[in-house]
Amino acid sequence: KRPAGAPDRSLARPVTKVGIVGAGLMASQLALLFARRLQVPVVLTDLDQERVDKGVGYVHAEIDKLLGKGRVGPDKANRLKALVSGAVDKAEVFADADFVVEAVFEEMKIKKQVFADVEKVVSPEAVLATNTSSLSITEMAADLEHPERVVGFHFFNPVAVMPLLEIVKGEQTDDATLATAFATGKALKKTTILVKDSPSFIVNRLLGRFMGEVGKIVDEGTPLAVADGAFAGVAPMPPFFLLSLVGPAIALHNNETLHGAFPDRFYVSPNLQALVAARKTSVYLPDFSIDPE
Ligand code: CAA
Fold first, then answer.
1. What's the burial of 43, exposed, middle or buried (CB within 10 Å: 0-12/13-18/19+)?
2. Where is the 3-hydroxyacyl-CoA dehydrogenase NAD binding domain (predicted)?
3. Ligand 1 within 6 A of 83 CB?
4. Distance, CA of 256 to CA of 276 (rounded, Å)
5. Residue 284 pLDDT
6. Is 154 in the active site?
7. Could you report the predicted ipTM of this complex, rounded to two decimals?
């Protein structure tokens, strides 16, 4: 059955090579998923060779884990490893990519620049997908020569296990792009839903409300471990564990975006702001302390 709002699947274009911009944790998880499910070459790119090597190294280590668990055999593991490569220079490796996903830092200016660079080297039909969790797809595409090939393709952490994929249609996204996104999401074995291009889409908007409230509870004086403990057996992961998994900077960015769009409804925690300003990557630190004032 076609997901609600998805265009005719006959419009979908084949995906024979995938380019991923970024080689951080999210990007590397995506590389593994694409290689495993689509069985096509996947190239990770980043600003320098060290980042690229780290990303490819992560994917290879995850493949070894799958091998260790017996989820893939030795031949398959080797084939998967051979499918995933990395490069610093996008021009050569992206030239024949027909589906490029960006998973770089969550900032509009950077993402626009990434797509402008990628557009110079890919074919006019190549899909440009963004894993943004909160930014406008329409705005991201606005200055491109072919804004109709940009689509939101938002995964959840950990990518290997979370079933949902939010597909976001920008104002100019055309049906062939959307159909390709849905067909690819299905091939990746994700549950695909079409969501409106609005701040933080659906899941992160709901999550922002929830995380804002639990942040406020801690800011008001409840110890963090107590707030987390209150969720035992209620949620799959206590809220501050989830915040550490997602990353404090991304969680803060989400709440700031939502606060900007709906100031009356979204809370931005000063403790979380301080944690991110101190470049901490986990909330399980004394820094996330409560100011009794
Ligand atoms: N990477 C890869 N695989 C992972 C993983 C990770 N980080 N964490 C867990 N897994 C795998 C495990 O290897 C295991 O796989 P096998 O069955 O093959 O062994 C499987 O997931 C289950 O793991 P656990 O036995 O540890 O099970 P669990 O009951 O602790 O569940 C969980 C783990 C699925 C992550 C669960 O805790 C959960 O659902 N947490 C909530 C996650 C969530 O809400 N994510 C959304 C965050 S919001 C977001 O990402 C949006 C954004 O843009 C910011």
1. buried
2. 17-197
3. no
4. 12
5. 62
6. yes
7. 0.94
Look at 4-8, 35-39, 77-81 and tell me which has the smallest mean pLDDT. 4-8
Residue type for position 237: M
Domain positions in the chain:
9-195, 203-277
Cα-to-centroid distance, 242 and ligand 1 (Å): 10
- Spacing of C-alpha 222 from chain mean position: 31
Query: Does residue 26 have its Cβ closer than 6 Å to ligand 1?
Result: no
Class of domain 9-195: alpha beta
pLDDT for residue 192: 97
